[in-house]
Design goal:
By secondary structure, the protein is of the alpha/beta class. It contains nine helices and six strands, in the order αβαβαβαβαβαβααα. Helix 6 links the parallel strand 5 and strand 6.
Length: 226
């Protein structure tokens, strides 16, 4: 079962990587929790090879050291932080080490899970004087209630809620930025619902361009499942 789940995850990641390669990660700092093995390690290797500065976190020192040596063998450097993000002190230390590499005061946070991995660092970062944006629809929790209450908490503390679409379009800023235009439109058409349908309509019906060809998901069969 584990092999099958890993195969499914790898297939989904490979699709995401096709988009990420059109976005410049060179010089950007990326924090990956659970980055010592499995999909987290695959993600670290891919983004590291694209030039991202990596901070990978996990609970086990030995696993982190193996992951660091594996990444080095692939030409990727990474800072490792042994921590349990469910513990406030560990979460604070992880975020602090990642932020020190950028020197920036604006933070964009997203991930699992909202009421711990996002809420705890957000509240502490706000207390420390950072400006925090939480990408609400890129976060998740054990239930909708948990997620909603966590978002209420960070908003009350002073964080600014944003969405994937608003964040991406704010980074794009101007359609005259041609170097990222196609990548943004690909994401919009594939993942942004009604907006994507509207873009496709404008391309085909207004501008007379051929219809987009969307890649089909290929979900491999589970190996060893009973």
């Amino acid at each position: 079962m584990a092999a099958g789940v890993a195969a499914v995850g790898a297939a989904l990641l490979s699709r995401g990587f096709r988009y990420s390669r059109r976005i410049d990660f060179d010089g950007r700092t990326v924090v990956i929790t659970g980055g010592s093995r499995g999909l987290g390690l695959v993600l670290a290797r891919e983004l590291g090879q694209q030039g991202a500065r990596l901070v990978i976190a996990a609970r086990d020192d030995e696993e982190l050291d193996r992951a660091r040596r594996h990444l080095q063998s692939e030409g990727v450097d990474a800072i490792t932080v042994a921590c349990d993000v469910g513990e406030r002190a560990d979460a604070e230390r992880l975020i602090a080490e990642a932020i020190e590499r950028t020197g920036r005061k604006k933070l964009v946070l997203a991930g699992l899970w909202t009421e711990v991995c996002i809420a705890f660092p957000t509240v502490q970062a706000l207390e420390d004087g950072y400006e925090v944006y939480v990408v609400e629809d890129a976060c998740g929790d054990v239930s909708q209630l948990n997620h909603d209450n966590a978002m209420k908490r960070v908003i009350q503390a002073g964080a600014k809620p944003v969405t994937v679409l608003s964040t991406m379009l704010e980074w794009q800023r101007d359609w005259a930025h041609k170097e990222t235009y196609d990548a943004v439109m690909d994401i919009v058409k594939n993942h942004m619902g009604a907006y994507g349908i509207g873009v496709e309509y404008a391309y085909t019906m207004v501008h007379g361009l051929p219809a987009s060809k969307f890649a089909e998901y290929e979900v491999p069969s589970l190996v060893g499942a009973h």
